[in-house]
Amino acid sequence: MTSASAAHLPRILTLAAGDLSLDLVPEMGGIIGAFRTAAGGGFDLMRPIGEAALSARNASAAASYPLMPYSNRMRDCTLYFAKRKFRLAPNFGSHPHSIHGNAWQRAWNVTEASATQATLTLDHDASGSRAAEWPFAYRAEQRFRIDAGGFALALSLTNTGDAPSPAGIGIHPFFARTTGARLSTQAAGYWRNDDGMMPVAFEPVPPAWNFAEGKLVAPLAIDNCFAGWAGSARIEWPEAGLVLHMAADPVFGHAVIYVPPGKPYFCVEPVSHANDGMNRMAKGAEDTGVRVLAPGETLSGEIRFAVEPL
Predict the structure, then answer these.
(1) Is 4 a residue whose pLDDT tops 80?
(2) Could you tell me the domains of the chain?
(3) How many Å apart are CA 134 and CA 103, to the nearest integer?
(4) How far is CA 237 from CA 71, 150, 183, 214, in A?
(5) Residue 144 CB contacts under 8 Å (≥ 6 apart), including other chains
(6) For the stretch 157-182, what's the b/e string if a residue is b when 16 or more beta carbons lie within 10 angstroms of its beta carbon?
(7) CB neighbour burial string for 250-281, b if at least 16 within 10 angstroms, e if fewer
(8) How does 200-219 read in b/e, with b if 16+ C-beta sit within 10 Å?
(9) DSSP string of 141-200, one letter each residue
(10) Which of the 8 DSSP states describes residue 64?
(11) Distance between the two ends of the chain, CA-based, in angstroms?
(12) Contact 191, 224 (CB under 8 A)
């Protein structure tokens, strides 16, 4: 367990086993700051957060951050649920939609920590100005554990209010986009987006984005939600001689694949529901993956990352 070297930087918790280390930044969105291996001279498996981003408390520059109580965009910062309309506070600069819930922008508490395990928790009471972040009370938990072969992250979201609430969980990892990086994964289909990056139609996966046999990531440009996701992905880095296996529990039936042009990273985001799924559910859609939690009910699942030589 270590702390950031400069006093103005947030505290960093480091979990380590074998050649692997995992940096957590609880007070800055409960994010992962880095996931790296020291083997072969060292390699950052996820995009490491820099000191400038740490100083600015910029969680969007993390190696990974939690997606709770929903994933991706909420159209026009508006939630429709139980025949009610809720306005959400913009949370991503001038972006017209609210994005990724509020857990990644809140300070988390460390409730347990050792050399190889840590539990982070967040209580959202939905009172006062917090209601504009999300109008339903919840308790979120992230449980990390690392060993010499990789790490596991267990997520849970509990409805702590007195009425039913919509819920979703997921994570937003940023992986190293090297020249030779290759992604393999499968899904039943994908959501085609409109010009505002909102889903408009579910379609078969086009050949250019069919990763069943593996594809080089570098030439691609994608920002879409894939449904009927198999729950597993393989990422190869020939330059580093490494492969990462990601395996997620069935609750994560969707994956957002994000490959932005010109950036040194790409994302494969295991999530429990489709983009803007809560508003689609309000319109009668049944294929969103959104869960409605009764008071006291919990939505949970685990994602595992295994690292081995290629």
Answers:
(1) no
(2) 13-309 (2.70.98.10)
(3) 10
(4) 27, 16, 9, 12
(5) 15, 22, 24, 117, 118, 119, 120, 151, 152, 153
(6) bbbbbeeebbbbbbbbbbbbbbeebb
(7) ebbbbbbbbbeeeeebbbbbbbbbbbbbbbbb
(8) eebeebeeeeebeeebebee
(9) EEEEEEETTEEEEEEEEEE-SSS-EEE--EE--EEE--TT-EEEE--SEEEEE-TTS-EE
(10) B
(11) 30
(12) yes
User: Could you give the CA distance from residue 139 to residue 159 in angstroms, rounded to a whole number?
Assistant: 7
21: number of Cβ within 10 Å: 17
From residue 22, alpha-carbon distances to 30, 117, 224 in Å are 13, 10, 28
pLDDT above 50 (res 19): yes
Q: How many CB atoms lie within 10 A of CB 28?
A: 27
pLDDT in tens, 159-172: 999 999 999 999 99
Q: Give me the residue label for tokens 């967040």.
A: 122
Instruction: Give the chain's count of helices (H) and strands (E).
Output: 3, 27
The pTM for the full model equals 0.95
Could you read off the pLDDT of 235-283 as tens digits, one per residue? 999 999 999 999 999 999 999 999 999 999 999 999 999 999 999 999 9
**CA atoms of 1 and 233, how far apart (whole Å):** 30
Q: Which two tokens stand for residue 292?
A: 């409605």
Closest CA to 307 of 66, 127, 37, 109: 37
Pairing of strands 215-216, 199-203: unpaired
Task: Provide Rg for the chain, Cα atoms.
Answer: 19
d(CA 47, CA 62): 7
DSSP label at residue 11: P
207 Cβ contact list (under 8 Å, min separation 6): none
